Amino acid sequence: MATAEQLNCYDFPKGFAWGAATAAYQIEGGWDADGKGLNVWDTFTHQGGDRVFKNQTGDVACGSYTLWEEDLKCIKQLGLTYYRFSISWSRLLPDGTTGFINQKGIDYYNKVINSLLENNIIPVVTLYHFDLPQAVEDQGGWNCEKTIEIFNHYAQFCYETFGDRVKFWITINEPHVVAKLGYEEGLFAPGKKEPGLGAYRAAHNMLKAHAKAWHTYKNDFKNKQKGFVSIAIDSDWAEPYDPNSEKDKEATERYLSFYVGWFAKPIFVDGDYPEIMKTVVSKRSKAQGLQTSRLPEFTNEEKNMIKGTADFFCLNYYTSRKIRHCTSSADESSCTSDIAAERIKDPDWPECGVEWLAVVPWGLRKLLAYIKDTFGNPTIYITENGFAQNESPVIKDVQRWTYFQETLTEILKAIRLDDVDVKGYFCWCLLDNFEWISGFSVRFGLFHVDFDNAELPRTPYHSAIEYSKIVKRNALTGPGETVASLNN
Ligand code: GAL
Q: Which SS3 state, helix, strand or coil, does residue 38 take?
């Protein structure tokens, strides 16, 4: 394999996808405009109760539902070749089903898709990014098997309606987050707290829903539309706290298996959960006097249905952790206690505007290599990565741009030195937006949004201007510029 110096360039591979990502609930606003139905985040935020920073909501957010042309200007200013956004399911299908179709919703997404294509920007569409229609949640949401079929109909409807132009589909964004925060810890909508059961059940149904929607595309659309379908999987990178401790090494393996492995192993390897996960949860369930494991099992038919249902790997990476083994008492029932691993932020790692996000660019390179080795060397798109500022953002975000540069350097190393097939990078996020329970206090945007101004003006950060240069030349450095060596 050639080293970077031999290749003598900081170029990205030809045709590398340069993107930015957003999600409907975080940017659109228009929560009840033109017949949109309620989704779980509308309900969750409207209930108040200080679960979200200052009880803020996404009712208005960046106003993208009416200000799409402003977003398009930002995308064009960056020179992006791809744009990842999500469809608000309940804007299209107010009660989640095709029983009633909201034409205004179709019109909005047609406008977005068509104007992207007119500008040679390839749309990457996420079908579901945390905002399950409330009507679907009312029937059990991801706790309930029925949702698999409802999701499949929704996916089918989207392929039919937009698939002549959309060729990149992501079924579900971060099922790990939905399962754990939405159905186990109750921190995210729909706010369900069912420790030790809820997350496993929700994840099980999401995996089946994803697989079903992938097959629907393959069987009924692929020949004609020639597109691709995947799922966005998030994960930390993790390393043992004490590299000489066997216990910490095992805990690290457990941590990664319960994180990226939970979804990637079934989809990319063999249709089933990681062995470690199955063993640990079953052992602990037994010790708790349960007849069956709290981790549901797939039938052989289901395993065959799930295996191989992603046309590439969509990875969302933000941070890393050092992992220390810990013990959890037998009667504690939760995903976290099943993992029995303490997550530690190395105090040497810089933090950005959000407490959980320790900045560890090299963790991405390691995670990419791990994915290559563990999940069959898939083609990988990094569908989210970013660094936040806090409530008092600076437009000249020089330090944040350094983090981006370091991250892009690590991606180049992964491509050039580790031979990982990375085909694209999507920065999170195009715009400052409603950052879930942190509300507007955390700013991930390449463009600043002035939420105090009713017109919600967008202004490029320094990072946006620098990112656009990289996008334009498809290379990390311009003439005469240097960055860290790519050699190790
Ligand atoms: C991801 C999520 C995004 C965004 C980002 C930053 O988990 O998909 O919607 O909020 O984190 O926290």
A: coil
Tokens 């132009």 found at: 165
Contacts of 485 (CB under 8 A, 6+ apart): 4, 5
The helix/strand/coil state of 353 is: coil
Token pair in block for residue 1: 């394999």
pLDDT digits (tens, 9 = 90+) for 286-302: 999 999 999 999 999 99
Q: Is the dihedral of CA 53, 59, 63, 65 positive or negative?
A: positive
- Determine whether the shortest distance from the Cβ of 302 to ligand 1 is under 6 A: no
CB count in 10 Å sphere of residue 140: 12
CA distance 286 to 104: 52
User: What b/e readout covers 290-301, taking b as 16+ CB neighbours within 10 angstroms?
Assistant: eeebbbbebeee
For 134-150, write each residue's pLDDT tens digit: 999 999 999 999 999 99
Which of 64, 171, 174, 167 has its CA nearest to residue 109? 64
Are residues 134 and 90 in contact, defined by beta-carbon separation less than 8 angstroms? yes
What's the pTM? Answer: 0.97
**Residue 6 confidence (pLDDT):** 45
Residue 482 pLDDT: 73
Give the per-residue pLDDT at 204. 99
Share of the chain above pLDDT 90, in %: 94
Is 234 close to ligand 1, i.e. is its CB under 6 Å away?
Answer: yes
Predicted pLDDT at 371: 99
The CA–CA distances, whole Å, from 195 to 10, 90, 294 equal 47, 28, 10
Atom of ligand 1 nearest to the CA of 354: 12
pLDDT of 3 above 80: no
Mean pLDDT of the chain: 96
Q: Whose CA is nearest to atom 12 of ligand 1?
A: 435
- Strand, coil or helix: what is 132? coil
Counting ligand 1 atoms within 8 A of each CB, the residue from 28, 176, 233, 384 with the most, and so the one to mutate, is: 384
- Give the separation between CA 364 and CA 235, rounded to whole angstroms: 10
Ordered by where they begin, the domains of the chain are 4-237+291-315+349-473 (3.20.20.80)
Q: How far apart are CA 458 and CA 469, in angstroms?
A: 19
**Coil, strand or helix at 86:** strand
